[in-house]
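Pilot study result, target chain (76 residues):
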Amino acid sequence: MKAFRIRGRFRMGRSWQPFSKELAAQDEAGAREKLFSILGSQHGVPRKYVSITGVEEVPKDQVENHAVKYTIEAGA
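Predicted structure:
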């Protein structure tokens, strides 16, 4: 597992809300899919209203999200 930080914005009502999210995934494509799933379930946002501006792999020592850090270290 690797850690990824995804930045972008999604449409919330009539305005666009910026976001930055850390996720644990096997690869960049998996991280993008997980992000679409999370935003869809938590905010009800369809994929067409999510604009990803950047995806970067985060080294283990720079991961800020505790759940992501635990997932990476556990090797799950």
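One observation from the pilot: Residues 2-74 form a domain with the Ubiquitin-like (UB roll) fold (CATH 3.10.20.10). A full batch analysis is planned for the follow-on phase.
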